[in-house]
Amino acid sequence: MLLFYRCLIRPLLDAVLRAMALWSPKARLTWQGRRGWRTGLQRLSETAGVRVHFHAASVGEFEQAKPIIEGLRSHFKQSVITASFFSSSGMQQQGGYVGIDAACALPPDRPKEIREFLDRLRPQLIIIIRYDLWPELLAESKRRGIPVVLVCGVLHSGSARMFPVVRFFFRWLYGQLTLACVVGADDAAAFQQLAPGLELHLAGDTRYDRVLARTAQISTAPLLAPHLAEYGITLIAGSTWPDDERLIAEATDPRLRIVLVPHEPTPQHLAPLCQQFPAARLLSELEPASQTNLYSVIVDRTGILSGLYRQGEIAYVGGGFGAGVHSVLEPAAYGIPVVCGPNIGRSRDAVAMQKSGALVVVRDADSLRGVLLRLLDDPAERARLGKAARQFVELRANATERIISTLLKKGWPA
Questions:
Q1: Does domain 223-394 have CATH number 3.40.50.2000?
Q2: Buried/exposed code over 143-180 (b: 16+ C-beta within 10 A; e: otherwise)
């Protein structure tokens, strides 16, 4: 199977990435990063102690790694923890995380590069987050006797990995893992079906631990209270797209203070948004010490959404009128009502939250207006929905403890 991968699949994947790099800046950076992976490991510590390597596809997946990294640090005072990323965005945004000693792009998945990669890292344990498996890395790690553990593993019974043409390849691929810590019982059943010999542990998802931990951290987001009108209810509209923003503009109420946080705050997105909300001010235009009386703020920077949800009384999460809703967990962890559009099928969190009554799904501007009026008029309803959202997250927490306990019982890392 490895020969099949080397002769057919890997050349095809390389060709696709190279072709994408011709027109996509992100793909170009990913390709260049993989070729220059050694740069990130130049200052790799030779400190004695346990050595653990984490791999994640991109930014979101690495967020799931952070609670485990922090947990391992508390267990092993002498440790060298490294990370690799497939995407350029992962490396750019997460490579400087203080919990790791070094970070790099994942090398090209070829025997020579992978052997050199492992020689430099000398890991005693490799942890892969969620799904990003690479055959040469898995095969060489298995040959060296290095345990490779998939955590926060998810697999749907209808996944393309189950299709007859590719099923045998993925059965072999997942069979190279030493252990998989999966999110739910449905995932465990699907993994058992695809790779019957793989050892499975039902552990949950560390994302719940991560969002809860963030609520206890000091926020770096600007404080909006001095700029917003004294009276009113604050709606934080996070990760919005034009379709979301049109609905919010139609459904607004004079009692509602709106903080718009576009998913992509580019000049091309912000210009029409400022026309749509003419009374709004850009966050970058607000003086830190000024006392203003605004009912709308447009956030024109990234990386502060979680801290802004902390300051809201209602959350609207964008993407539900497009390709799919963004993360509903961050606002839920702050214990405020969470509202979104109807396209939630790609988010298992959103689907589960709706089923539990902790998420309000709207279909159009009229239904959004109705929900907002109800929440504005009924403080008890706001409190009830906020409590339900927070409890949804709390009931699914502690995956980190279960994962680390499983690793330690196995004697890993050692």
A1: yes
A2: eeebbbbbbbbbbeeeeebbeeeeeeebbbbbebbbbb
- Other C-beta atoms closer than 10 Å to the C-beta of 105 total 25
Residue 303 to residues 94, 123, 217, 222: CA-CA distances in angstroms?
12, 31, 15, 11
Please give the Cα distance from 65 to 414 (Å, whole number).
19
Q: What whole-number distance in Å separates Cα of residue 128 and Cα of residue 124?
A: 13
Tokens of 171: 């059965």
**How many residues belong to the chain?**
414
For 47, counting Cβ atoms within 10 Å of its Cβ (0-12 exposed, 13-18 middle, 19+ buried), the class is: exposed
Instruction: Give yes or no for a contact between 389 and 352, defined as CB atoms under 8 angstroms apart.
Output: no
- Tens of pLDDT, residue by residue over 319-337, are 999 999 999 999 999 999 9
Q: How far apart are CA 53 and CA 30, in angstroms?
A: 20
Q: What is the pTM of this model?
A: 0.91
Within the chain, all domains assigned CATH 3.40.50.11720 are found at: 31-205+397-409
How far apart CA 329 and CA 332 sit, in angstroms, is: 5
Structure-block tokens of residue 332: 């839920």
Q: What is the pLDDT of residues 115-166, one digit of tens each?
A: 999 999 999 999 999 999 999 999 999 999 999 999 999 999 889 999 988 9
Q: Two tokens at 340?
A: 């979104």
Q: Which DSSP state fits 228?
A: B
**Residue 130 is encoded by which pair of tokens?**
């969620």
Do 18 and 81 meet the contact criterion of CB atoms below 8 Å apart? no
Delimiting residues of CATH 3.40.50.2000 domain(s) in the chain: 223-394
Question: What is the spatial distance between Cα 234 and Cα 328, in angstroms, rounded to a whole number?
Answer: 17
Dmax of the chain from CA atoms?
67
Domain boundaries 31-205+397-409, corresponding CATH code? 3.40.50.11720
List beta partners, residue 294: 228
